[in-house]
Amino acid sequence: MNLKELIISNIKQNSKSRTFNLVYEGEKIWIKLPALGEANIWHKVLSLFYKITKNPLLAPTVVTNPKESLAYEASKLQKLTTLNINVPKVILADEEFLALSDCGTPLSLIINSEKYSFEEKATIMRKLSLSLANMHNLGIYHSRPALRDITYHNGEIYFMDFEENLEKVLDTQNAINRDVLIYIHSLYRKVSDQKLIYIALDTYKKNISSIIWTEISKEAQKYNILHFILKIIYTFSGKDARAIFQTLNYLRDIK
Questions:
Q1: Which of 24, 63, 82, 87 gets the most CB atoms within 10 Å of its CB?
Q2: 67-119: per-residue pLDDT in tens?
Q3: Triad 183, 194, 158: Cα angle to 5°
Q4: 110 and 230 inside one domain
Q5: What does 81-128 look like in DSSP terms, one character per residue?
């Protein structure tokens, strides 16, 4: 049985899962199936403000054509590999699935785990922010760099899930601005240790181009109404709303 036949056989057994893994010739492989995207709190908030402001940075990007999105992701991963960006290797691409190399453990599962020391976590956060800053300095963006979409494997950071296509919606700088908003929100939302958040933010700021950082700061200043509303309701807010406020607060205050 070749790899494609093995994958098709396993898809039938994992019909309710969007992703699953299998072992082929001794190697762990992840299979990703096409699926409609799900709007998270950021998508909902940004979509509302997009309707009000018509700011392209806030345009909805939830996947609406699963197979087209899967093909886009395969092409994007292959391109990033040629640019020496750590992403999963595309082992086999098909209209119905992607077969990708294993890239370790999502950072969302590592960063609050007691299995890792503070020093280990700090090292990971530095590597993460440095990798993201280096990618942005090359004019490359992720589109959704949340901790659940970034992994750690053999001492290296890997970026996952490139299914959201921003190319027809945003120019490069605005896409990078959006990356940073989502990244910082993910830090405040998921990381319980404030020292680790500081390490991540400080590392990113020290390594990102001053030109790019200036544009990111300018973008954050545009959300006066949202920042004001979130400040008023902060005490009564849930984790997502608080993380959005903390993200805007950091970007508006930092110099």
A1: 87
A2: 888 999 999 999 999 999 999 999 999 999 999 999 999 999 999 999 999 99
A3: 35
A4: yes
A5: HHTT-----EEEEETTEEEEE---EEHHHHTT-TTS-HHHHHHHHHHH
Domain end, chosen from 62, 84, 101, is at 101
Q: 10 Å Cβ neighbour count for 72? A: 17
Number of structural domains (the chain) is: 2
pLDDT for the residue numbered 65:
78
Q: pLDDT value at position 124?
A: 98
Question: Residue 56: pLDDT band by 50, 70, 90 thresholds?
Answer: low
pLDDT for the residue numbered 189? 94
Cα-based distances in Å from 186 to 5, 145, 206:
38, 8, 19
- Rounded to the nearest angstrom, the gap between the alpha carbon of residue 148 and the centroid of all alpha carbons in its chain is 7
For residue 11, the domain's CATH number is 3.30.200
